[in-house]
Write a structure and sequence with these properties.
CATH superfamily of the largest domain: NAD(P)-binding Rossmann-like Domain
InterPro entries: 6-PGluconate_DH-like_C_sf, NAD(P)-bd_dom_sf, P5C_Rdtase_cat_N, P5CR_dimer, Pyrroline-COOH_reductase
EC number: 1.5.1.2
Order of helices and strands: EHEHEHEHEHEEHEHHHHHH
CATH architecture of the largest domain: 3-Layer(aba) Sandwich
Keywords: Amino-acid biosynthesis, Cytoplasm, NADP, Oxidoreductase, Proline biosynthesis
CATH topology of the largest domain: Rossmann fold
CATH class of the largest domain: Alpha Beta
Family: Belongs to the pyrroline-5-carboxylate reductase family.
Largest sheet: 8 strands, mixed
Strand order of the largest sheet: 3-2-1-4-5-6-7-8
Catalytic activity: L-proline + NADP(+) = (S)-1-pyrroline-5-carboxylate + NADPH + 2 H(+); L-proline + NAD(+) = (S)-1-pyrroline-5-carboxylate + NADH + 2 H(+)
Number of domains: 2
Bound molecules: NADPH dihydro-nicotinamide-adenine-dinucleotide phosphate, (2S)-3,4-dihydro-2H-pyrrole-2-carboxylic acid
Radius of gyration: 21 Å
Distance between the termini: 34 Å
Number of strands: 8
Length: 270
């Protein structure tokens, strides 16, 4: 299977790195990016073909991943209109709807929306997928094969819910990294050197996530098992509750979902 990427930034890098780790061949992957330094970086790091402009070789692929920023998509797609007939086109852009992507591609409808996340780089991503109803089973399977190489996949029945996937798991790693930053800063403020504070914070999140993934119990039960009556965790959780941490996180995820919808609505007007 030949896979091409339109845009070679953060997310394309994570996907390509993960795909190569999972047995995809570098000679089957191509990238186009406007930045010469991005092309040089991708070519030297991964051994893939990376070019500065769309050409016929790039478009001769089974799956074409659209990995430019939402604001760059319409202009980027103008260079494809009328030039593709075969590939399943997989857009990973936040917010942008199939109907608008299709219009910008001159009516091409073999389109799948995917929302991966950056842990794809180490094969630990999770991706929500939505296919235009006109995409056949082979097209869906080809799109899923690319994303399944870098983590788990979930098909979403309604396109409108892709903004919720974006808010929960697409942006989600940033929330977790932010929590790690805070835990690390707390450790440093309690007197640990930077390396020790970071090790304690990262290994705690890693271990807790693994335990949650492996356990038959939900995270609420696991939290209660840490929380001894009258103990230290209880003091910390009471402080978090007083600061409204839980509700603040829910509000933050809702803000991300709203922003995804806004992007789709604003950019889809053109
Ligand atoms: N980062 C993340 O965690 C996730 C991102 N996404 C989605 O992935 C997409 C890419 O995000 P991200 O990788 O972070 O963005 P980046 O800005 O890192 O990457 C986009 C790259 O595409 C280049 N580019 C812009 N226009 C064109 C064009 N016409 N032809 C070729 N290359 C072009 C950009 O160049 P230049 O720098 O010059 O603009 C840039 O190098 C977005 O739509 C985002 O919504 C989805 C899931 C997670
Ligand atoms: O912040 C963004 O808009 C993109 C989409 C999900 C993660 N990053």
């Amino acid at each position: 299977m030949r896979i091409s990427f339109l845009g070679g930034g953060n997310m394309a890098t994570a996907l390509i790195g993960g795909m190569l780790e999972r047995g995809f061949g570098a000679s089957d992957i191509q990238v186009v990016d406007l930045q010469a330094d991005s092309c040089a970086r991708l070519a030297s790091r991964f051994g893939v073909r990376a070019v500065g402009a769309v050409d016929d070789a790039l478009l001769d692929c089974d799956v074409l991943v659209l990995a430019v920023k939402p604001q760059q998509m319409q202009v980027a797609l103008a260079s494809l209109a009328g030039r593709i007939a075969r590939p399943v086109v997989v857009s990973i852009a936040a917010g942008l709807r199939v109907a608008d992507l299709s219009r910008w591609m001159g009516g091409y409808r073999r389109l799948v929306r995917a929302m991966p996340n950056t842990p794809a780089l180490i094969g630990a991503g999770v991706t929500g997928l939505y296919a235009d109803p006109s995409v056949d089973a082979a097209g869906r399977a080809a799109a899923e094969r690319v994303l399944a190489a870098v983590g788990s996949t979930v098909w979403i029945g309604e396109e409108a819910q892709m903004d919720a996937v974006t808010a929960v798991s697409g942006s989600g790693p940033a929330y977790v990294f932010h929590f790690i930053e805070a835990l690390e800063a707390a450790g440093a403020s309690l007197g640990f050197d930077a390396a020790t504070a970071r090790r304690l914070a990262i290994d705690t999140v890693l271990g807790a996530a693994k335990l949650a993934a492996d356990s038959d119990e939900g995270p609420g039960v696991l939290r209660e098992r840490v929380t001894s009556k009258g103990g230290t965790t209880e003091a910390a959780l009471a402080s978090m509750a007083a600061s409204g941490v839980f509700d603040a996180i829910v509000r933050a995820v809702h803000a991300a979902e709203v922003r995804g919808r806004e992007l789709g609505e604003q950019l889809g007007k053109d």
